[in-house]
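Quick one:
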Amino acid sequence: MELKLKEVAELLNVSSKTVYRWVWDGKIPCYRINHQYRFDLEEIRDWAGIDSGESGSERAGGVEAEARVDVSELLRRGGIHYNIAGSSVKDVLANAVSQMNLPPSIDRGELLERLERREAMASTAVGDGLAIPHPREPIAASEADERVALCMLHEPIDFHSLDGGKVHSLVVVVSSDQVRHLRIISKLLFFRGGKDFSELLRRRALRDEIFGFVEEMERRFAGVSAPVTGG
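Output:
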């Protein structure tokens, strides 16, 4: 189910300004569709720990402290892959999984099945030609087994994106727990917020340039998320 920013604020019992600040800081999973922020209900429930009995504000305060992830390192593990073939969502997911650099602990067949199951629930396309496929539940045995893989498709395909556009690139996320998973997703969406990332993907930039961009965005993200201290 898709939520608007105001609906998220009501669900979490916080102000709209607070939710907007979380979006700006990259703390909360969200999608930008036609210049409007949208949120997936199940992702917000997981992020906020609603089923655990914690309040949204309590959970939000703990997410950043609990999860420290380096997307540039995860991307180096998972790899950047070009010309992924396929004419359907199922085809490109299968071919992307076959190309990913995975640890022995992760079975490719099981990963593919979980990606397909998640996609059947709702499209992971986030607009601007990008989709972020990921299992509904964490599949990596440990943080050392986590991966992020960037897969650029041979031809754009219909991923049932909310903005109506076709997807030309996938960022597949494999995480070890829900908190780290949501932190990875939040960072990826923060990176996507700038036009530079979309442009790199559209022109299929070389690996070194993409890694350099992601490392720079990691530094910017750290600056945005750092607490402000006064003298």
